[in-house]
Amino acid sequence: MNKINNHLSYKMEGDKSTNNSDDYYKNVKLVGFVKTDSETLSGYKNDGFQWSSADNLSSYPSSYHRENDISSPGKVLGGDTVVPVYPDSVNRCCTRKVLYKRLPILQWLPKYTVGDHGISDLVAGITVGLTVIPQAIAFANVAGLPPQIGLYSSFMACFVYTIFGSCKDPALGPTAIMAIMTRENIHDMGPEFAILLCFITGIVQLIMGFAQLGFLIDFISGPVSAGFTSAAAIVIATSQLKDLLGINIKANSFIGFWDQLAMHIREISVGDGTLGITCMVVLLLLRKMKDIQVGPLDVKDKTTVQRMVSSIIWLISTARNIIVVVFCAALGYMYKEHGNLPFKLSSHVESGLPSFRPPPFESRVGNETYNFVEMASKLGSGILVVPLLSILENISLAKFFSDGKTVDATQEMLALGASNLISSFVGSMPISGALSRGAVNNASGVKTTFGGVYTGIIVIIALQFFTPYLVYIPKAALAAVIIAAVVFMVELQVVKPMWRTKKIDLVPAFATFLCSLLIRLEVGIVVGIAINVIILLYTLARPSIHVEKQQSEFGYEYLVITPDRSLVFPSVEYVRAVVSKAGLKQGLSSIPVVMDCRHIQGADFTAAKGVKSLIDDFVKRNQPLVFYNVKPSVISIFQGVRPTEFNCCVTEQQLHERLKGYYYSRMQTLTL
User: Fold this and answer.
1) Which of 32-46, 195-209, 447-461 has the lowest mean pLDDT?
2) The domain 543-671 is classified under which CATH number: 1.10.472.10, 3.50.50.60, 3.30.70.260, 3.30.750.24?
3) What pairs with residue 278 in β-bridges?
4) Torsion of CA 653, 656, 661, 665, to 10 degrees
5) How many C-beta neighbours within 10 Å does residue 459 have?
6) Taking the domains of the chain in order of start, what are their residue ranges?
């Protein structure tokens, strides 16, 4: 039976009770199975160790191999047969369940029908396609890249995400955040650096997906995200003012831009300014147009005409960008043909589809040639910050439209990584899911990710046949499209809730906002994360400790001290000081002190040393110190440093018996 027990000691991981009449193992983690003649090993009451021949052992975690403890499968030891688990990790990764999880298209494609899914996806795909074309050209301008780069970034990801995407609403492509981050990291070095950044972004995201590193996104808190997004929106809008007003300004910072604007204020073009401001007003009015209510609130109560009018109003509001851009392009064409152009037009757009080839691993800028390492070095922190922000943007979008369903963050990272990686082969800049296009997708009634196929086809048609006409789009109109979109990214509405709930959250929010605005965007988000971590570590190092004097039914007093979290090295000295001080002042250096450890889930070596020193302090002044509600795993850690004495009680009855003993012992001492 010893051999069985040895096997179980490593087959089950958990906290062992010293009382064999209780369940021998507490909080057991199942890492293997034991088969006995009676199907359940006597003396072990954990139901998790019941076994039957029908169980599929390959689905359970693998065990650790220890030759001294495990006999070969099927060998009988005292009537009990030990059956260790040897699952094949490769086979486990290649099951149908995993395949369907990593290729979500296999789940919905067999059930796909034209009536239930096809029409909705077609309408949504075309609508998003008409939205993404003007946005792509404008975002390329934000990134400081040729207009065609924006269009190159808008079609390949649609096809890839159709296969790997787990959420129907995200419409991958260039976004405002990705555009401004690309501009800030390529340092005007040219499209080759932007394409390489897209490639590296895809690689990093795939690595994060395979390594299950999605938890890193959790370090970007809501306040930090709000501060960063708001600052990015202001930086983007500021960068577009030069095109909106028709002046030539080149500045590398937010403050520098406004300084340059003050110097060139008299150079504002009346034509560009008038057109740009008019376009902004029209775009904002059309955006508000979708809120117009036609007929009753309940759709079922509306007449056919009312439903048709509502649909037309919604379509006009949704397609406002393409309507304004097409109208302004027609205006630009007319003015250019007559030779009297009052505003600036877009630069030349290369016609045709891009060739499918690897991203550039070497680039020549001026008279200097950069190899891959030098290009990656030029991109700097962007090779990590851009992938993280891309993931954050896409997962936030997926959660927003998830209707309470769980979002598979790992699959979204893999899908986004594959999209960025493959898109870099067609000359794309870094991409993600845009909230504006996701909202259009959702409002259009998209059913599956197949809507992205129609969006990609629309962009390909535009590249193949309409690029010669894109040159007539006024720069002021594109600037108006961007400003009208990003102005709603400034999250002023979160300030009041943060003030009402937890005011300290305003510190990382405003720090992120100011650093992103005045220094650099990636600096801002790093500063915000650092402040959040500092606040987190401070709360870890300074736990809340409740001190209360209680009196038992027998009349003796004792002090109960309850820390609200685990003991780890940053907090141990603080806890020791508080407990010792409470024992001296409130406990009068004599009455027993009970340390209630119900909230202490774990401890480390430093904490154990601190507890040992605390026990020594109480022993020196002959004041009882009792540990109550201590978990077995914590007891073993505390006992590992061999304290002078370690008084521990498991039940309330044991605690009162021990305190009663202290009380009578003290009374006898005082009597003598």
Assistant:
1) 32-46
2) 3.30.750.24
3) none
4) 180
5) 24
6) 116-295+302-532, 543-671
Could you tell me which of 595, 608, 610 has the C-alpha nearest to residue 563?
Answer: 595
Concatenating the DSSP letter of every residue in 239-307 gives HHHHHHHT-----SSHHHHHHHHHHTGGG--HHHHHHHHHHHHHHHHHHHHTT---S-SSGGGS-HHHH
What residues are paired with 149 via a beta bridge? none
Tell me, what's the pLDDT at 83?
42
Of the candidates 448, 267, 263, 405, the residue with the CA atom closest to the CA atom of residue 344? 267
Place of tokens 């039976």: 1
Distance, CA of 634 to CA of 330 (rounded, Å) = 75
Q: Which two tokens stand for residue 639?
A: 């006992």
Tokens, residue 518: 């005045």
CB 123 within 8 A of CB 444: yes
The DSSP element (H or E) to which 536 belongs, if any, is helix 521-541
More confident residue, 317 or 90: 317
Please report the pLDDT score of residue 348 as a whole number: 81
**How much is the mean pLDDT over the chain?**
82
pLDDT digits (tens, 9 = 90+) for 646-658: 889 888 888 888 8
Those residues whose C-beta lies under 8 Å from the C-beta of residue 63, and which sit 6 or more positions away, are 10, 11, 31, 32, 84, 85, 86
Alpha carbons 660 and 555: distance in angstroms, whole number: 10
Q: What are phi and psi of 167, to 5 degrees?
A: -120, 140
Q: Is the pLDDT of residue 44 over 50?
A: no
- How far lies 521's CA from each of 4, 139, 201, 241, 382, in Å? 60, 17, 17, 19, 10
Q: Are strands 557-563 and 593-596 parallel, antiparallel or unpaired?
A: parallel
| Helices of type H across 68-118 | 89-93, 96-102, 105-108
Type of residue found at 613 = S
Q: How far apart are CA 331 and CA 101, in angstroms?
A: 50
Give the whole-angstrom CA distance, residue 431 versus residue 416: 8
